[in-house]
């Protein structure tokens, strides 16, 4: 029904409706709309959908009791150091088994390095959902490394470990609290390994363990922090970490 | 993409930066609204916000005084994903639990709403709820929070091009659900 040109117009048309276009691009869209009834109709549909969504969907405001609870919590937590001490480490680590006591998980915080374990494991799990694993699929580190340039302000080291039995399958960007992470994705047999990398100053810091059936190994070196996460067994994951380091 | 650094213990807060409390309380409605649309459960949404606030305390050192709303929503979004993953894992043990969540009536729907509008809203909400979460969050951030592509990309941690195609797929799905779209594609 629509021509290829119209197909290509769609994201531009949408961007126009969303007010994201510069004048020149907007003029291009307008010129096309003048001559194309199909795209004009699509524009009307997009505008109508927008209006309907904004008119009919409820705006969820934070309930007053939540606002009070947050306020109270903020008053009780003057700083991160003080806040970090409010729950004993033992209790916190006992709680992070995600599948374990869900109700407690919901209300109790995870902190510092402990918290980061959960972030990276959660990011690993999230990445296993269809089409979440890779932004760029490539077994060639000379493709993967430049891919990060322009997307990140740091340059993660990319090693070819195929000869060691850990072939690279690609990479993506992931978001961790307050920062972007480069993620290199390796494989061992049927197991996916996510290697998270971002700049950090915690030289010499290490950790290893498991969360929810996923093993992780963490270290810091050369101004970068590294987290390897996988359902691979701990021993082979350590071997992987050893190859990367 | 700008690197925003890791939190560093012992680092003092800049005087020019807004207080954490101000950022949180100013944008609490937006934070709750996003959590609500992502997890589709009022109680879990509250837990997400509380957890995000606690995490935010930890990560506030990484806040450079840029857009506080986007910063907070990004943490809320990541927290929601984490807690949804936890719920899904638990759901494997207690099957059917997450279906029950979807049927929780919306307490915000007052009786003053016209019936037809309620029907429209309910139909749209169902269609929105049925979208994959990564499409739903883009649409909610765009249409309800009225954020820019750039802000949405920042919050969801994907390139702007991905935001655009997710928005398109989300809208396409809703237009099909509304019966407004052509059958193609
Ligand atoms: Zn056209």
From TrEMBL, chain A:
Listed Gene3D superfamilies: Anti-sigma factor, zinc-finger domain
Signal sequence interval, chain numbering: none
Domain Putative zinc-finger: 6-39
Key words of the record: Membrane, Transmembrane, Transmembrane helix
Protein name, per record: Anti-sigma factor
Pfam families referenced in this protein's UniProt entry, alphabetically: zf-HC2
Transmembrane annotation, as ranges: 89-108
Keyword Zinc-finger: no
Domain of life: Bacteria
UniProtKB/TrEMBL annotation, chain B:
Domain RNA polymerase sigma-70 region: 24-88
Source organism superkingdom: Bacteria
Pfam family, one: Sigma70_r2
Domain RNA polymerase sigma factor 70 region 4 type: 123-174
Keywords: DNA-binding, Sigma factor, Transcription, Transcription regulation
InterPro entries according to UniProt: RNA_pol_sigma-70-like, RNA_pol_sigma-70_dom, RNA_pol_sigma70_ECF_CS, RNA_pol_sigma70_r2, RNA_pol_sigma70_r4_t2, RNA_pol_sigma_r2, RNA_pol_sigma_r3/r4-like, WH-like_DNA-bd_sf
CDD domains: Sigma70_r4
Family: Belongs to the sigma-70 factor family. ECF subfamily.
The protein, known as: RNA polymerase sigma factor
Species of the source: Teichococcus aerophilus
């Amino acid at each position: 029904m629509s021509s290829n040109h119209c197909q290509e117009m769609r994201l531009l048309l949408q961007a126009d409706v969303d007010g994201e276009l510069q004048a020149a691009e907007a003029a291009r869209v307008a010129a096309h709309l003048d001559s194309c009834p199909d795209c004009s109709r699509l524009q009307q549909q997009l505008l109508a959908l927008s209006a309907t969504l904004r008119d009919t969907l409820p705006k969820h405001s934070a309930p007053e009791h939540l606002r009070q609870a947050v306020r109270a919590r903020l008053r009780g937590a003057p700083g991160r150091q003080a806040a970090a001490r409010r729950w004993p480490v033992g209790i916190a680590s006992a709680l992070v088994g995600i599948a374990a006591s869900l109700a407690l998980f919901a209300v109790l915080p995870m902190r510092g390095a402990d918290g980061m374990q959960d972030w990276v494991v959660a990011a690993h799990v999230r990445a296993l959902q269809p089409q979440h694993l890779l932004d760029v699929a490539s077994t060639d580190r000379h493709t993967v490394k430049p891919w990060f340039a322009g997307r990140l302000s740091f340059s993660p080291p990319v090693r070819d470990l195929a000869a060691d039995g850990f072939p690279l399958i690609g990479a993506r960007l992931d978001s961790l609290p307050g920062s972007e992470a480069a993620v290199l994705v390796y494989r061992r047999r049927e197991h996916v390994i996510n290697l998270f990398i971002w700049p950090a100053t915690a030289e010499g810091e290490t950790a290893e363990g498991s969360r929810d059936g996923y093993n992780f190994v963490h270290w810091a070196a050369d101004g970068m922090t590294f987290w390897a996460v996988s359902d691979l067994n701990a021993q082979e994951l350590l071997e992987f970490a050893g190859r990367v380091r | 993409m700008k690197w925003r650094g890791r939190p560093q213990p012992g680092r003092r807060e800049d005087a020019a930066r807004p207080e954490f409390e101000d950022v949180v309380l100013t944008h609490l409605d937006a934070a709750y609204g996003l959590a609500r649309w992502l997890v589709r459960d009022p109680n879990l949404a509250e837990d997400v916000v509380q957890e995000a606030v606690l995490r935010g305390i930890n990560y506030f050192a990484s806040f450079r005084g840029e857009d506080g709303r986007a910063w907070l929503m990004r943490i809320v979004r990541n927290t929601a994903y984490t807690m949804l993953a936890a719920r899904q894992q638990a759901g494997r043990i207690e099957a059917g639990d997450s279906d029950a969540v979807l049927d929780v009536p919306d307490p915000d729907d007052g009786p003053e709403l016209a019936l037809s509008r309620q029907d429209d809203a309910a139909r749209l909400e169902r269609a929105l709820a049925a979208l994959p979460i990564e499409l739903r969050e883009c649409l909610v951030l765009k249409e309800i929070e009225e954020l820019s592509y750039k802000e949405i990309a920042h919050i969801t941690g994907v390139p702007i091009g991905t935001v655009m195609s997710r928005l398109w797929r989300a809208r396409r799905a809703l237009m099909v659900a509304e019966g407004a779209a052509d059958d193609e594609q």
